Predict the 3D structure of the following.
Amino acid sequence: MDSQTQMKQAVADAAIREVKSDMVLGLGSGSTAALMIKSLANEIRLGKIQNIRGVATSFQSEVLALELNIPMIDLASVSQIDLAIDGADEVDPGFQLIKGGGACHVREKLVASKADQLLIVVDETKLVQNLNQSFALPVEVLPNAWKQVKEVILEMNGSSSLRMATKKAGPVVTDQGNLILDVFFNDGIKNPKNIEMQINNIPGVLENGLFVDLTDKVLVGKIENDTPMVYSPSRAS
Ligand code: 5RP
């Protein structure tokens, strides 16, 4: 196992220690969240955690959870989610996030917004001082609006590119049937709240990957003396 996967595994296992029986649990997307889902399934199989109902944030998490026999419930039929556990692409010191590396940020944000607690699990490569300096901001757009949205983002000093699929010709098509523009702003993102609102206000945009003031706790995996460790940083004010 490479060192990044070791960090992800450690943080995925640590996240499951925050799960209690009878919870309605938001199940995140991406490789770290997938390890967390596998860890959860193991605890359920061993009888250590009981009566969990999972809420998927993507086809990825839904398929994985069903394959592992985790009971699932539809987002529309739950009135409350006790805890959502998800990964992130960038985490700043104030716990503002960029998500959407897996193009799942629309449902991820819906689940996070409905959750009493959002727990973010990352390896330490995801911690940044300023958002959007090395990871592009994913923006989900209606298929026939991508060019128009790209032009508006350019007026906001952002350059964007349509995300292309691998193992399929053409662009990535999201779980909702839309396209993704990956955006870099010239100076990064200094005011995530404003940028989140401005982008979502562009006609044709469904949702962007800025998660502002949603995160309650972050668990970070790192390697120290060749051993995977997990810590929980304090939020900078
Ligand atoms: C998917 C996401 C993921 O949580 C994010 O991309 C992190 O993924 P990974 O754990 O594979 O690094 O937001 O839309």
